[in-house]
Design brief:
single chain, mainly beta, 3 helices, globular, disordered N terminus
């Protein structure tokens, strides 16, 4: 991954010790990622249960500092991508099992009133301040935070408390696959720095009909001894204004609502045959890990609906055998009028990510 220095704060709302259990989505520092991490423990609690890690990663270097110290890298279309992806993206996020079942929030963060009323809580209110920059399409940088806020009873925007903050960034020295479109969509492979044998595949898809609406789907993938899907995270986000580093909470102004417990997409709603306008980025050069996803043409695609994992918000994901003998991980977002946008990541038989493809698809007749 990119050469950055980071400070990891391990904290929680309470000082009481918690059970030490790792999860596929726990992203804490270790020796496998190549990061020069430093630790600072705010409360002696260790690591939290489930995928709701209490790690907060904040870079000790600014994006500008990283750019200045890196070799010059040229990328086409980055300025257009930066314009579309930058800003304050607020909404809701939830964790799902590999079968698509929603996972409850940890009981320790759920207000007592919800427990008394037997209200099930699956969703975090989230913020994702994002800033992408470049110098005339040279030396690209991207920095963003996934901020989870503690659940509150009623509309208590002024009382919103940050539960976790996870920061990720891209610099010219980035050494794992990152592919982007000028539309603001991107796909990134993030090595998991504490759970050896896992990585995270993040698909960020912008709604082509609404440039202020997007979804981020993160697949937790095990690669030892073979590739397996172990969990799913979904973030449904709206654009609320220019980048302000998360200083302004969305609160009651959030245009979306909690979604994890809502009805998932139905198999009958997903056609089998599609006409796909596909754009591709290939990763056959280890020195070029930041790639523009470029159009390659139109093809007909047949989708085996029985392989899909159905999620709320008209979303799906899947894992299937690829033509090269490897594995393909897919996510899809069903739009209106028989259209969808999909992201496919193809891994070789040696678990190397070789190709990322984003397609705009239209249902086709048999």
């Amino acid at each position: 991954m990119a050469a950055v220095s980071a400070v990891v704060n391990i904290y929680a709302p309470s000082c009481r010790p918690k059970l030490h259990i790792f999860s596929p989505f726990t992203t804490l520092p270790g020796t496998s990622s190549g990061f020069p991490f430093r630790f600072r423990c705010e409360h002696p609690i260790g690591f939290f249960v489930s995928s709701h890690s209490t790690a907060a990663i904040s870079s000790s270097e600014t994006p500008q500092a990283s750019v200045k110290s890196a070799p010059t890298t040229s990328v086409g279309g980055w300025a257009d991508f930066a314009e579309k992806v930058s800003g304050e993206w607020d909404g809701f996020g939830a964790d799902f099992t590999a079968e698509g079942k929603p996972i409850h929030l940890p009981e320790s963060v759920v207000p007592e009133a919800f427990r008394e009323w037997e209200v099930e809580v699956f969703d975090w209110q989230t913020q994702c301040p994002t800033l992408a920059q470049s110098q005339n399409n040279h030396n690209p940088s991207l920095i963003y935070k996934t901020i989870k806020l503690l659940p509150t009873v009623g509309c208590e925007a002024d009382a919103a408390t940050v539960y976790t903050t996870l920061e990720k960034n891209i610099t010219p020295a980035h050494d794992s696959p990152f592919a982007y479109q000028s539309t603001g969509s991107y796909v990134a492979l993030w090595p998991n720095s504490i759970t050896n044998g896992f990585f995270e595949l993040e698909h960020c898809l912008l709604n082509p009909d609404d440039k202020e609406s997007r979804v981020r789907i993160i697949q937790a993938i095990e690669f030892q001894p073979e590739l397996k899907l172990r969990g799913i995270q979904v973030f449904v986000e709206q654009w609320y204004g220019p980048f302000r580093n998360g200083e302004q909470l969305g609160g009651c102004s959030i245009r979306d609502t909690a979604f994890a417990a809502s009805e998932p997409l139905k198999a009958s709603e997903v056609p089998s045959l599609w006409q796909a306008f596909t754009s591709v980025a290939s990763f056959d050069d280890p020195h070029k890990m930041i790639q523009l996803i470029e159009p390659v043409g139109v093809c007909q695609k047949r989708r085996n609906v029985s392989e899909l994992i159905f999620l709320p918000k008209q979303l799906w994901c899947s894992m299937r055998r690829a033509e090269n003998g490897g594995i393909c991980f897919e996510v899809g977002w069903l739009l209106n009028q028989g259209r969808s946008i999909t992201s496919n990541c193809t891994f070789s038989s040696t678990a190397q990510l070789t190709e990322i493809a984003i397609a705009s698809e239209s249902a086709s007749q048999e």
